[in-house]
């Protein structure tokens, strides 16, 4: 056995035996080099291979961490390829650093944990968020920022509350974020749909809606759309801001994946707002622990008093421990480092997804082509109803989400499924797309649904 093989075997045994606990930081390269009498290059090579095997992961300027092993519930689902997930993979969360951050938060903010705070959130956190948003060309002082218990809370409050323009209907992209569609439906708010495609939005149609309907706000996900995964162009974002000012319509911009952006010139609609008509929503759940349930809303001065009042009635104040932890993660650079890691990792996975679809599926399937993010939509041929294909895939231990859930009632839905790469590694993505092909083939052979043998050239 070579020295390299010995080092790799030693580390693998430490991980599998639990000697190195899941989520714990791995020994430093220098420390291992001394302990095992190996060169630093040998340790680096071993760590690189263990990372490819998904046993560890690296955090820039921090080191390597052991990946969290499955819980008992996940063990029962061993082998599941989950294209339906929207929450981060627990196996790539820096738990040791997070635990340290939470402990420090208790030490430093203990007096805040036993009292109700400002409904807008800690002033110090809002100042930190203000600095963070400025990197995305969103310039707002802490007085215009409200910390919320997840971006969905902000969306729910905005759908519920009255607006200064006195209008009542909400214009929503179709398909769109299923959580927002559900919130509008539960509140009984009048919802009007406008088609969103890979090319974006028909701006002439948008103007007709703004001019002819009592739209209080237009809800849009311009960056890494859910479920399409694609983004609006700069000219479209500029025009939306101009139309909002012209027709006194507010825009609620859900920029939930801004921290995964790789294009430094991809500015949000908010950056083109000159009339105070854009409400900007940012989520921090897709980067760090979704259980922290934290987001931020940048609210125009004319809207803030009403929003603040509804926020106070909703939950008095956002959880103090979560706020303190996020502030410390910003201050330590942990959030930024982890965001950089996720951008790289998800970028690789998205390219693997596109390559796998090109390899296994023919032209009857249409995959959207996002430049980043975590979602893509796979449009299916008519002969393969999305719900039936999803059911067939469950038998193969593959989960997908039919995009029918992303439409409001009465709007014509595209026959498709949303594919998420947030909890699937490269091997699982390739296997999962191959299984989609196999399930489609089986449906065609059995004549299930509306499938027919003549539908595909490879049957």
Tell me, what is the CATH class of the largest domain? Alpha Beta
Globular, elongated, flat, extended or rod-shaped: what is the shape? globular
Helix percent band: 40-55%
**How many alpha or pi helices?**
15
Calculate Rg over CA atoms.
24 Å
Report strand order across the widest sheet.
Answer: 4-11-10-9-8-5-6-7
Number of domains: 3
Terminal Cα span: 48 Å
What would the average pLDDT be, to the nearest integer?
88
- Count the beta strands: 16
Could you name the ranges where pLDDT drops below 50 across 5 or more consecutive residues? none
- Annotated CATH architecture of the largest domain: 3-Layer(aba) Sandwich
Query: CATH topology of the largest domain, which one?
Result: Aspartate Aminotransferase, domain 2
Strand content: 5-15%
CATH superfamily of the largest domain: Type I PLP-dependent aspartate aminotransferase-like (Major domain)
Q: In terms of structural class, how would the helical and strand content be classed?
A: alpha/beta
Largest sheet: 8 strands, mixed
Summarize the model shown.
42% of the residues lie in helices and 14% in strands. It has 459 residues and is an alpha/beta fold. It is globular and about 75 Å long.
């Amino acid at each position: 056995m070579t020295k390299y093989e010995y080092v790799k075997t030693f580390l693998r045994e430490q991980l599998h035996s639990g000697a190195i606990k899941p989520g714990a930081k791995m020994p430093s390269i220098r420390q291992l080099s001394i302990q095992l009498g190996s060169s630093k290059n040998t340790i680096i090579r071993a760590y690189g291979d263990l990372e490819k095997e998904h046993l560890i992961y690296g955090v820039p300027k921090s080191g390597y961490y052991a990946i969290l092993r499955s819980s008992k519930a996940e063990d029962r689902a061993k082998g599941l390829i989950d294209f339906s997930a929207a929450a981060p993979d627990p196996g790539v969360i820096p738990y040791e650093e997070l635990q340290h951050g939470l402990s420090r938060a208790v030490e430093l903010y203990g007096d805040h944990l036993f009292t109700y705070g400002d409904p807008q959130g800690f002033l110090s956190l809002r100042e930190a968020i203000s600095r963070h948003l400025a990197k995305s060309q969103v310039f707002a002082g802490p007085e215009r920022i409200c910390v919320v218990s997840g971006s969905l809370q902000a969306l729910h409050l905005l759908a519920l509350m009255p607006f200064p323009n006195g209008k009542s209907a909400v214009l929503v992209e179709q398909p769109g974020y299923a959580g927002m569609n559900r919130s509008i439906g539960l509140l009984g708010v009048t919802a009007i749909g406008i088609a969103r495609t890979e090319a974006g939005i028909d701006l002439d149609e948008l103007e007709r809606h703004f001019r002819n309907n009592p739209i209080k706000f237009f809800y849009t996900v311009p960056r890494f759309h859910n479920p399409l995964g694609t983004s609006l162009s700069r000219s479209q974002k500029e025009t939306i801001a101009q139309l909002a000012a012209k027709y006194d319509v507010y825009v609620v911009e859900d920029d939930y994946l801004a921290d995964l952006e790789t294009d430094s010139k991809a500015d949000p609609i908010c950056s083109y707002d000159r009339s105070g008509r854009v409400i900007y929503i940012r989520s921090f759940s897709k980067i760090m622990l979704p259980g922290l349930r934290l987001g931020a809303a940048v609210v125009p001065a004319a809207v803030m008093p009403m929003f603040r009042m509804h926020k106070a009635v909703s939950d008095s104040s956002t959880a103090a421990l979560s706020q303190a932890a996020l502030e410390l993660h910003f201050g330590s650079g942990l959030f930024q480092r982890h965001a950089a890691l996720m951008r790289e990792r998800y970028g690789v996975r998205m390219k693997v997804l596109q390559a796998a679809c090109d390899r296994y599926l023919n032209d009857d399937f249409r995959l959207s082509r996002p430049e980043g993010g975590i979602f893509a939509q796979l449009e299916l041929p008519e002969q393969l109803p999305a719900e039936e294909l999803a059911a067939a895939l469950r038998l193969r231990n593959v989960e997908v989400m039919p995009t029918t859930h992303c439409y409001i009632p009465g709007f014509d839905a595209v026959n498709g499924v949303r594919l998420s790469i947030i909890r699937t590694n490269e091997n699982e993505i390739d296997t999962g797309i191959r299984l989609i092909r196999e399930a489609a083939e089986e449906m065609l052979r059995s004549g299930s649904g509306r499938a027919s043998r003549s539908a595909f050239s490879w049957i």
